[in-house]
Amino acid sequence: MSSVNSVSVHSIDEERLKFRVIVAINARVQGLIGANTFGQGSYDLEIPIPTSFANSHEYSSCLIKCDTMAAWSDDALNTCSWGNSVRSKKIPALELQLSTPSSQATGSYIVEGAAAAAAANRPPTQIETQGFKQIITGNVVIQGNGNTWGPFAAPVAGQSWNSSPQTCEPLMCANPFGQNITLRFTDPTETPAERQVWIQDTGAANTTDQGFYVLQFEVQMVPNK
After folding, report:
1. For position 224, what pLDDT does the model report?
2. The whole model's pTM is what?
3. How far apart are alpha carbons 52 and 161 in whole angstroms?
4. I want to staple 203 with a disulfide (CB 3.0 to 4.6 A). Which of 8, 13, 66, 79 is the partner?
């Protein structure tokens, strides 16, 4: 039996409703020129309007998914890790949050103990709703020492945290184009006061945001009717 090559044909109008949004954040350079308080796991963005479709009253909702993410530090720092305001952390999975309204995401977190809850053999559960949420799994990858593609070596490091292939489905959210949006990196296993995480220099006395972050989002507009 001979195989038959086939291609999927999509309408032009359907393809015009799909967008790719690239977000790049150099938190290290911002921290160096200010009071070292920039970012630290929370970043305010403005998503530009690419076409009239993204600014139409006929499309108030969209499907959003983050399909790629990478995070790294300056190549001169060899003691960097994810961390919060208290300590550095080993994190194989981040919870990525956007302030874009959504009623289709919720979270249930058992992250701290309480005497009353322990007595009842029922640990306290924190509940979060509202906004876009997606778990991003990742691994530390060697990317050279800043001079060559070879293995990293102190004092010049060359590692990054790269996301694994994201297999989850996109989430229904409000139209993000032309809006001011807050993006957050969080550790879902941490207490609320220490949930935000960022790339920091574990060899330094402060917790300045030393991160370079790049994310790619796929956005598809959904007609109101």
Report:
1. 87
2. 0.84
3. 36
4. 79
